[in-house]
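Two quick folds needed for the group meeting slides. Do the first one here.
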Amino acid sequence: MLAEILKKSFEAYFDAPIEAWKEFSSLCEAISFNKDEIIKPQNTTEKYFYFILKGSAGIFLWKGNNFVCLDFAFDNNFCGDYMSLLTQKPTALEVVALEKSEMVRVSRDDFYKLSQKSVGQVIMQKSAESSFVEKQQQQIELLTKTAEERYRILQTKFPNIHQRIAQKHIASYLGITPQSLSRIRNPAS
């Protein structure tokens, strides 16, 4: 079952054989998090690579006197502090469950064991490439689009985001205040 979910979630990037996903899923451990539970604290080293079966997570960075939301991940997506996982160094990033979440995780060591196989190498490469493209697109939008345009893009990408994620996190991700987000959401008021 898990192998099929992983395969379906990843097919847009690379159509790996089900056997590769069975091997990956055999290394996974089921774990759950409560809403607002810290998955990976800031200034620590990431030990796991997570896949969200149900729920959501956010990646945050402390700036000034509060956390800024850098990214979201929802059902059927990977999440975690990938930079720390790759470098094996602590980062200032914090990963938090944004709602009650069911996930599976694979340890860094097991994750890298998979990379010793050709299909595992391709899966890791495609994961890194898609993550890079997504972050570049996010940066381009931040520099070239208005807050309202970025909000509409976010709504298209995650249609029910307001039912799942606190407004303060959505506003933070967009780089605006919650009050500005309210005005964008309700232009007539």
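Then this one, please, same format:
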Amino acid sequence: MDSKTALPLFILAVLYLAGTTTSAAVVKPSSTYIKTSCATVTYPALCEQSLSPFAQTIKRNPAELARTALAVSLKRSESTQAYLNKLKRFKGLKPRERSAIGDCLEEVSDSLERVSKSIQELKNCDRVKGQEFIWHMSNVQTWVSSALTDENTCMDGFGGRAMEGRIKTSVRAQITSVAHVTSNALALVNSFAQKH
């Protein structure tokens, strides 16, 4: 490489690094806030990974952090519901697997509804104070906790040796993913309730 080519490449590299350093500095306060908040949950790495894309929306706002965590849980629940619906139509299922998937689908649907209601209820918390705030937050906490129970109950139908195999493993991976983000959301909701 001659010196005429090397100099422009060097300048481009410096400009690129300067640009990435500047943009990283802009995002850093809210990213640090997410990292610090996620340190208190059961699955901190997942929490940080799932919420970091929303750093600009969350900023340093505990209510927005809780809402976003619930929205992530809702999105995962919707994906899992769609996955289970497709899986239920799979031709090679054993009758017991099909039944367990149907039961699981009901639990995930209930969970989805509860998380959705929680998001709406959390919006009500922005407009109220005192006892009314506590009442709305109590609803949110109860519904998210129930959603987590629904997700965990889903796997009950897959108990026993007869149910071992790819279907159970696949469903477990989906449900575990939803349960972990829901658990994190509940922890962040509880944290927001305590700070208010």
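Slide caption for protein two: Confidence is low (pLDDT under 50) at residues 5-27.
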